[in-house]
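Weekly modeling sync, notes
Attendees: S.R. (lead), two postdocs, one rotation student

Agenda item 3: backlog of single-chain predictions. S.R. asked that every request posted to the team notebook include the full sequence so nobody has to chase files. The rotation student volunteered to paste the first one in as an example of the format we agreed on. Action items at the bottom.

Example entry:
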Amino acid sequence: MVESHVNTSALNSVDDDSKYKKFALSRKRDSPLLKKYQDALVILGNSSLGFASIYLLVGAVYLLYGGHPGHTTVEKLMNFFSISVEVLGLLVLRHKIKVNNSVKGISGMTMIMYAVVYTIRIWLAVPDHWIHDVTELSIDASFGFISLMLALDILRAVFVTHRSSYQADLDVLNVKFLLPGCLVLACLVRPHFHTWTSTYAYVWSSCLYMDVLALMPQVVMMSRGGGKVAAPVAHFVAATFFSRIEDLSDTVLYHGSTLQSQEWCSYWLIVLVQSVHLLLAADFMYYYVKARRSGAGLVDDIDMSALIMEV
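Predicted structure, as returned to the notebook:
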């Protein structure tokens, strides 16, 4: 009896130790620091890794055997980097929605604007006499289709799948004012080059103005959100900002050497508009970088209170 009692006590002690270890392990897993790395593993473990692998493989083949006919390898790489950063920002948003089953903090107005911009970019980039040879398509006409599909998927989540979590009261910069405003502005002021038709110049200019304003509903929504910005949303804004830096550098480096004398005014108008685009988001980027360097909000939120006070 004594031996049996001792064995039972020992077994109970082992069970208690196991339960304690499991409890301690579960507490560690709930910690914010580990949650960040768990979320990263989720990204690497799901279809995102497969998508990224296929994307990079197709991109490498595309750049080697086609894409942007007549452009240098450096220019092709810069354009591919720009659109890849854009795709990454959209993937981060899409992953946030999938993990949280919520679109809280995401501007539906911004996603509508970008869906329109991507659609117009694809249409503008398809050659007039295209013979369905993929290698003749530019980056915007080929890989831009990926950005469009991701934007449409996020739109479906915002306005259909997870509409109950959409913060419409904070998303106040409405596209019903922004889109017509861009169309009217393109009627009044637009660049024009000798290789463009009047229709092409008008549509291209409208798209440029839409692209400049597309991010503004998201920035305004964040400024009204109370001081904390969901990290994936902030990463999306930052990714878009870096992508547009490449757009400006592409204009400055590669599109000023073959201009006719009467086209310089149009050229500098494009540079000015693209610079204004970056300046509109520069305040956000300052506090974004500051928050990241200080280590604040590395897990879930980034504190943008200083930006909100200025806005």
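Discussion: group reviewed the output briefly. Strands lie at 228-230, 301-303.
Action items: rotation student to repeat for the remaining queue; S.R. to check formatting next week.
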